[in-house]
Amino acid sequence: MIRFTRRLYSTASTPRIVNTIAEYRALRNEWLLAGKTIGFVPTMGALHQGHLSLAKTAKQDCDKVVASIFVNPAQFAPTEDLDRYPRTFENDVKLLSTVGVDAVFAPSVQEMYPAGITLDVSKQTGTFVEVKGKSHMLEGSVRPHFFRGVATVVTKLFNVIQPHKAFFGQKDGQQCAVIRTMSRDLLIPTEIVVCQTIRETDGLAMSSRNRYLSVEERETAPVLYRALRAAEVLFEGGERDANVLREVAGKILKESGVPVEYLSGKIGKDGAMMSGAVRIGKTRIIDNVLLGVEVRK
Ligand SMILES: Nc1ncnc2c1ncn2[C@@H]1O[C@H](COP(=O)(O)OP(=O)(O)OP(=O)(O)O)[C@@H](O)[C@H]1O
Ligand SMILES: CC(C)(CO)[C@@H](O)C(=O)[O-]
Ligand code: BAL
User: Fold this and answer.
1) Among 148, 182, 214, 249, which is least packed by CB within 10 angstroms?
2) What's in the keyword line of the UniProt record (predicted)?
Protein backbone atom coordinates (compact mmCIF):
# COMPACT_ATOMS: atom_id res chain seq x y z
CA MET A 1 0.00 0.00 0.00
CA ILE A 2 2.77 2.42 1.00
CA ARG A 3 4.74 1.49 -2.12
CA PHE A 4 1.72 2.12 -4.32
CA THR A 5 1.23 5.61 -2.84
CA ARG A 6 4.91 6.43 -3.33
CA ARG A 7 4.89 5.30 -6.92
CA LEU A 8 1.84 7.41 -7.65
CA TYR A 9 3.53 10.42 -6.09
CA SER A 10 6.79 10.08 -7.95
CA THR A 11 5.43 9.29 -11.40
CA ALA A 12 2.27 11.37 -11.44
CA SER A 13 3.41 14.55 -9.74
CA THR A 14 7.15 15.20 -9.68
CA PRO A 15 7.93 17.84 -12.29
CA ARG A 16 10.74 17.20 -14.73
CA ILE A 17 13.71 19.44 -13.95
CA VAL A 18 15.07 21.01 -17.11
CA ASN A 19 18.32 23.00 -16.92
CA THR A 20 19.11 23.65 -20.56
CA ILE A 21 17.31 25.35 -23.43
CA ALA A 22 18.09 22.41 -25.73
CA GLU A 23 16.45 19.93 -23.34
CA TYR A 24 13.39 22.12 -22.94
CA ARG A 25 13.01 22.50 -26.73
CA ALA A 26 13.02 18.73 -27.18
CA LEU A 27 10.33 18.36 -24.50
CA ARG A 28 8.26 21.12 -26.03
CA ASN A 29 8.41 19.47 -29.46
CA GLU A 30 7.06 16.24 -27.94
CA TRP A 31 4.21 18.15 -26.31
CA LEU A 32 3.34 20.06 -29.47
CA LEU A 33 3.36 16.90 -31.59
CA ALA A 34 0.88 15.44 -29.09
CA GLY A 35 -1.32 18.55 -29.51
CA LYS A 36 -0.79 19.87 -25.96
CA THR A 37 -1.16 23.51 -24.92
CA ILE A 38 1.53 25.00 -22.67
CA GLY A 39 1.03 27.33 -19.70
CA PHE A 40 3.99 29.18 -18.21
CA VAL A 41 4.58 30.58 -14.71
CA PRO A 42 7.83 32.61 -14.51
CA THR A 43 9.27 32.93 -10.98
CA MET A 44 12.45 33.70 -9.12
CA GLY A 45 11.86 30.78 -6.71
CA ALA A 46 11.47 30.92 -2.90
CA LEU A 47 7.92 29.90 -3.68
CA HIS A 48 4.79 30.55 -1.64
CA GLN A 49 1.03 30.14 -2.08
CA GLY A 50 0.93 33.18 -4.42
CA HIS A 51 3.13 31.34 -6.92
CA LEU A 52 1.17 28.12 -6.45
CA SER A 53 -2.11 29.86 -7.19
CA LEU A 54 -0.67 30.98 -10.56
CA ALA A 55 0.36 27.39 -11.27
CA LYS A 56 -3.10 26.08 -10.31
CA THR A 57 -4.76 28.55 -12.68
CA ALA A 58 -2.30 27.57 -15.42
CA LYS A 59 -3.18 23.92 -14.83
CA GLN A 60 -6.88 24.71 -15.26
CA ASP A 61 -6.25 26.47 -18.58
CA CYS A 62 -3.48 24.41 -20.21
CA ASP A 63 -2.54 20.75 -20.77
CA LYS A 64 1.10 21.20 -19.67
CA VAL A 65 2.48 23.69 -17.16
CA VAL A 66 6.07 24.89 -16.97
CA ALA A 67 7.33 27.00 -14.06
CA SER A 68 10.69 28.71 -14.36
CA ILE A 69 12.96 29.35 -11.40
CA PHE A 70 15.59 31.91 -12.32
CA VAL A 71 16.94 34.73 -10.17
CA ASN A 72 17.47 37.23 -12.97
CA PRO A 73 20.60 39.35 -12.39
CA ALA A 74 19.52 42.02 -14.91
CA GLN A 75 16.64 43.20 -12.73
CA PHE A 76 18.84 43.84 -9.67
CA ALA A 77 20.83 47.04 -9.15
CA PRO A 78 24.41 46.50 -7.93
CA THR A 79 23.25 47.76 -4.51
CA GLU A 80 20.33 45.32 -4.26
CA ASP A 81 19.93 41.82 -2.84
CA LEU A 82 20.92 39.52 -5.73
CA ASP A 83 23.42 37.60 -3.59
CA ARG A 84 21.13 37.09 -0.62
CA TYR A 85 17.89 36.56 -2.56
CA PRO A 86 16.37 33.39 -0.99
CA ARG A 87 17.16 30.22 -2.94
CA THR A 88 15.10 27.20 -1.83
CA PHE A 89 15.14 25.02 -4.93
CA GLU A 90 14.35 21.61 -3.41
CA ASN A 91 11.42 22.89 -1.43
CA ASP A 92 10.18 24.82 -4.50
CA VAL A 93 10.10 21.62 -6.56
CA LYS A 94 8.19 19.85 -3.77
CA LEU A 95 5.62 22.64 -3.70
CA LEU A 96 5.25 22.64 -7.49
CA SER A 97 4.69 18.90 -7.43
CA THR A 98 1.62 19.43 -5.21
CA VAL A 99 -0.13 21.42 -7.95
CA GLY A 100 0.76 19.20 -10.89
CA VAL A 101 3.40 21.34 -12.62
CA ASP A 102 4.89 19.26 -15.43
CA ALA A 103 8.33 20.84 -15.81
CA VAL A 104 10.58 23.23 -13.93
CA PHE A 105 12.89 25.25 -16.16
CA ALA A 106 15.88 26.23 -14.00
CA PRO A 107 18.63 27.54 -16.28
CA SER A 108 22.05 28.86 -15.29
CA VAL A 109 22.93 32.54 -15.75
CA GLN A 110 25.29 31.44 -18.56
CA GLU A 111 22.41 29.72 -20.35
CA MET A 112 20.19 32.82 -20.21
CA TYR A 113 22.96 35.39 -20.78
CA PRO A 114 25.50 33.61 -23.03
CA ALA A 115 27.48 36.84 -23.49
CA GLY A 116 27.54 37.43 -19.70
CA ILE A 117 25.68 40.09 -17.72
CA THR A 118 26.93 42.95 -15.59
CA LEU A 119 24.56 44.66 -13.13
CA ASP A 120 25.90 48.12 -13.93
CA VAL A 121 23.56 49.32 -16.70
CA SER A 122 26.11 51.87 -17.96
CA LYS A 123 28.58 49.02 -18.67
CA GLN A 124 26.11 46.66 -20.33
CA THR A 125 26.50 45.79 -24.00
CA GLY A 126 24.29 43.67 -26.25
CA THR A 127 20.52 43.44 -26.52
CA PHE A 128 17.99 44.56 -23.91
CA VAL A 129 14.25 45.19 -24.05
CA GLU A 130 12.89 48.47 -22.75
CA VAL A 131 9.23 49.43 -22.52
CA LYS A 132 9.36 53.19 -22.75
CA GLY A 133 6.69 55.27 -21.04
CA LYS A 134 5.83 52.55 -18.50
CA SER A 135 9.16 51.70 -16.89
CA HIS A 136 10.35 54.79 -15.07
CA MET A 137 7.49 55.86 -12.82
CA LEU A 138 6.31 54.25 -9.54
CA GLU A 139 8.45 51.09 -9.11
CA GLY A 140 10.68 52.33 -11.93
CA SER A 141 11.29 55.65 -10.17
CA VAL A 142 12.83 53.77 -7.23
CA ARG A 143 14.34 50.92 -9.31
CA PRO A 144 15.23 52.53 -12.68
CA HIS A 145 17.02 49.40 -13.96
CA PHE A 146 14.18 47.05 -12.95
CA PHE A 147 11.68 46.85 -15.81
CA ARG A 148 14.44 46.72 -18.43
CA GLY A 149 15.76 43.62 -16.67
CA VAL A 150 12.29 42.10 -16.32
CA ALA A 151 11.26 42.83 -19.95
CA THR A 152 14.55 41.39 -21.21
CA VAL A 153 14.37 38.15 -19.24
CA VAL A 154 10.65 37.63 -19.88
CA THR A 155 11.29 38.02 -23.64
CA LYS A 156 14.09 35.45 -23.41
CA LEU A 157 11.94 33.09 -21.35
CA PHE A 158 9.02 33.46 -23.78
CA ASN A 159 11.41 32.69 -26.68
CA VAL A 160 12.52 29.52 -24.93
CA ILE A 161 9.25 28.27 -23.44
CA GLN A 162 6.98 29.50 -26.28
CA PRO A 163 3.88 29.16 -24.10
CA HIS A 164 0.31 29.57 -25.26
CA LYS A 165 -0.48 31.42 -22.02
CA ALA A 166 1.69 33.00 -19.30
CA PHE A 167 0.48 33.73 -15.76
CA PHE A 168 1.51 36.72 -13.65
CA GLY A 169 0.41 38.03 -10.24
CA GLN A 170 -1.51 41.28 -9.76
CA LYS A 171 0.72 41.98 -6.71
CA ASP A 172 3.32 43.20 -9.22
CA GLY A 173 0.73 45.32 -11.03
CA GLN A 174 3.11 47.58 -12.92
CA GLN A 175 5.12 44.54 -14.04
CA CYS A 176 1.91 43.11 -15.53
CA ALA A 177 1.29 46.37 -17.43
CA VAL A 178 4.88 46.43 -18.73
CA ILE A 179 4.67 42.80 -19.89
CA ARG A 180 1.31 43.32 -21.59
CA THR A 181 2.66 46.35 -23.48
CA MET A 182 5.86 44.52 -24.40
CA SER A 183 3.91 41.52 -25.70
CA ARG A 184 1.65 43.75 -27.76
CA ASP A 185 4.51 45.82 -29.19
CA LEU A 186 6.79 42.86 -29.98
CA LEU A 187 3.90 40.83 -31.46
CA ILE A 188 4.46 38.05 -28.92
CA PRO A 189 1.73 35.44 -29.47
CA THR A 190 1.49 34.38 -25.80
CA GLU A 191 -1.72 35.32 -23.96
CA ILE A 192 -0.94 37.18 -20.71
CA VAL A 193 -3.18 36.17 -17.79
CA VAL A 194 -3.11 38.29 -14.62
CA CYS A 195 -4.17 36.49 -11.43
CA GLN A 196 -5.37 37.88 -8.11
CA THR A 197 -2.98 38.67 -5.24
CA ILE A 198 -2.86 35.98 -2.56
CA ARG A 199 -2.64 37.38 0.98
CA GLU A 200 -1.76 36.25 4.47
CA THR A 201 -4.70 36.25 6.90
CA ASP A 202 -3.78 39.76 8.11
CA GLY A 203 -3.83 41.11 4.56
CA LEU A 204 -0.10 41.21 3.82
CA ALA A 205 0.49 40.23 0.18
CA MET A 206 2.57 37.06 0.04
CA SER A 207 6.05 37.76 -1.26
CA SER A 208 9.36 35.90 -1.28
CA ARG A 209 11.07 38.84 0.37
CA ASN A 210 8.64 38.73 3.34
CA ARG A 211 11.02 36.18 4.82
CA TYR A 212 13.53 39.02 5.36
CA LEU A 213 11.16 40.58 7.95
CA SER A 214 11.90 40.26 11.69
CA VAL A 215 9.02 39.34 14.01
CA GLU A 216 8.31 43.00 14.83
CA GLU A 217 8.63 44.08 11.19
CA ARG A 218 6.22 41.33 10.16
CA GLU A 219 3.64 42.81 12.56
CA THR A 220 4.01 46.25 10.96
CA ALA A 221 4.08 45.06 7.33
CA PRO A 222 0.28 44.76 6.71
CA VAL A 223 -0.05 48.56 7.15
CA LEU A 224 0.35 49.14 3.40
CA TYR A 225 -2.59 46.88 2.57
CA ARG A 226 -4.64 48.43 5.42
CA ALA A 227 -4.06 51.85 3.85
CA LEU A 228 -4.92 50.71 0.32
CA ARG A 229 -7.94 48.82 1.62
CA ALA A 230 -9.26 51.95 3.38
CA ALA A 231 -9.19 53.73 0.01
CA GLU A 232 -10.87 50.74 -1.63
CA VAL A 233 -13.70 50.79 0.95
CA LEU A 234 -14.29 54.49 0.20
CA PHE A 235 -14.30 53.76 -3.55
CA GLU A 236 -16.82 50.96 -2.99
CA GLY A 237 -18.94 53.49 -1.08
CA GLY A 238 -19.01 55.78 -4.14
CA GLU A 239 -15.99 58.08 -3.65
CA ARG A 240 -14.48 58.94 -7.04
CA ASP A 241 -12.03 61.71 -6.14
CA ALA A 242 -8.54 60.19 -6.43
CA ASN A 243 -7.09 62.91 -4.17
CA VAL A 244 -9.45 61.86 -1.36
CA LEU A 245 -8.54 58.19 -1.81
CA ARG A 246 -4.82 58.98 -1.72
CA GLU A 247 -5.26 61.22 1.33
CA VAL A 248 -7.06 58.51 3.29
CA ALA A 249 -4.40 55.91 2.50
CA GLY A 250 -1.59 58.42 3.04
CA LYS A 251 -2.88 59.35 6.49
CA ILE A 252 -2.81 55.72 7.66
CA LEU A 253 0.75 55.31 6.39
CA LYS A 254 1.86 58.57 7.98
CA GLU A 255 0.41 57.61 11.35
CA SER A 256 2.27 54.28 11.21
CA GLY A 257 5.58 56.08 10.74
CA VAL A 258 6.83 53.73 7.99
CA PRO A 259 8.87 55.40 5.23
CA VAL A 260 6.73 55.67 2.08
CA GLU A 261 8.49 55.42 -1.30
CA TYR A 262 5.39 56.25 -3.30
CA LEU A 263 1.62 56.12 -3.05
CA SER A 264 -0.27 56.45 -6.28
CA GLY A 265 -3.84 56.32 -7.46
CA LYS A 266 -5.61 57.64 -10.51
CA ILE A 267 -9.18 57.01 -11.55
CA GLY A 268 -9.88 56.44 -15.24
CA LYS A 269 -13.06 55.47 -17.03
CA ASP A 270 -12.19 51.77 -16.74
CA GLY A 271 -11.49 51.82 -13.00
CA ALA A 272 -8.27 52.45 -11.15
CA MET A 273 -5.27 50.98 -9.43
CA MET A 274 -4.02 52.35 -6.13
CA SER A 275 -0.50 51.24 -5.45
CA GLY A 276 2.26 51.91 -3.01
CA ALA A 277 5.68 50.90 -1.75
CA VAL A 278 6.96 51.23 1.80
CA ARG A 279 10.13 50.30 3.60
CA ILE A 280 9.81 48.05 6.63
CA GLY A 281 13.33 48.12 8.00
CA LYS A 282 15.49 47.18 5.03
CA THR A 283 12.71 45.34 3.22
CA ARG A 284 10.59 46.91 0.47
CA ILE A 285 6.92 45.99 0.52
CA ILE A 286 4.81 46.71 -2.55
CA ASP A 287 1.09 46.25 -3.00
CA ASN A 288 -1.90 47.52 -4.95
CA VAL A 289 -5.67 47.29 -5.12
CA LEU A 290 -7.74 47.46 -8.27
CA LEU A 291 -10.79 49.66 -7.97
CA GLY A 292 -13.71 48.67 -10.16
CA VAL A 293 -11.66 46.13 -12.19
CA GLU A 294 -11.83 42.33 -11.99
CA VAL A 295 -8.80 40.03 -12.26
CA ARG A 296 -8.65 36.26 -12.61
CA LYS A 297 -9.57 34.49 -9.34
N1 LIG B 1 1.01 37.19 -3.32
C2 LIG B 1 1.00 36.89 -4.62
N3 LIG B 1 -0.16 36.58 -5.23
C4 LIG B 1 -0.19 36.29 -6.56
N5 LIG B 1 0.90 36.28 -7.35
C6 LIG B 1 2.08 36.57 -6.78
C7 LIG B 1 2.20 36.88 -5.40
N8 LIG B 1 3.51 37.13 -5.11
C9 LIG B 1 4.18 36.97 -6.27
N10 LIG B 1 3.33 36.65 -7.27
C11 LIG B 1 3.65 36.47 -8.68
O12 LIG B 1 4.55 35.39 -8.85
C13 LIG B 1 5.38 35.64 -9.98
C14 LIG B 1 6.80 35.45 -9.58
O15 LIG B 1 7.13 36.43 -8.62
P16 LIG B 1 8.44 36.41 -7.75
O17 LIG B 1 9.11 35.10 -7.92
O18 LIG B 1 9.20 37.66 -7.91
O19 LIG B 1 7.82 36.37 -6.27
P20 LIG B 1 7.62 37.52 -5.26
O21 LIG B 1 7.01 36.93 -4.06
O22 LIG B 1 6.92 38.65 -5.95
O23 LIG B 1 9.12 37.90 -4.93
P24 LIG B 1 9.70 39.26 -4.36
O25 LIG B 1 9.42 39.23 -2.90
O26 LIG B 1 11.12 39.11 -4.73
O27 LIG B 1 9.04 40.39 -5.10
C28 LIG B 1 5.07 37.08 -10.44
O29 LIG B 1 4.16 37.03 -11.51
C30 LIG B 1 4.44 37.66 -9.21
O31 LIG B 1 3.56 38.74 -9.48
C1 LIG C 1 8.65 37.94 -13.95
C2 LIG C 1 9.95 37.61 -13.22
C3 LIG C 1 10.02 36.11 -12.96
C4 LIG C 1 11.12 37.96 -14.14
O5 LIG C 1 12.34 37.64 -13.55
C6 LIG C 1 10.10 38.40 -11.92
O7 LIG C 1 10.15 39.76 -12.13
C8 LIG C 1 9.05 38.05 -10.92
O9 LIG C 1 9.26 36.99 -10.30
O10 LIG C 1 8.03 38.75 -10.75
N1 BAL D 1 8.41 40.22 -7.91
C2 BAL D 1 9.29 41.13 -8.57
C3 BAL D 1 10.71 40.68 -8.58
C4 BAL D 1 11.66 41.65 -7.99
O5 BAL D 1 11.30 42.48 -7.14
O6 BAL D 1 12.85 41.61 -8.34
Assistant:
1) 214
2) ATP-binding, Ligase, Nucleotide-binding, Pantothenate biosynthesis
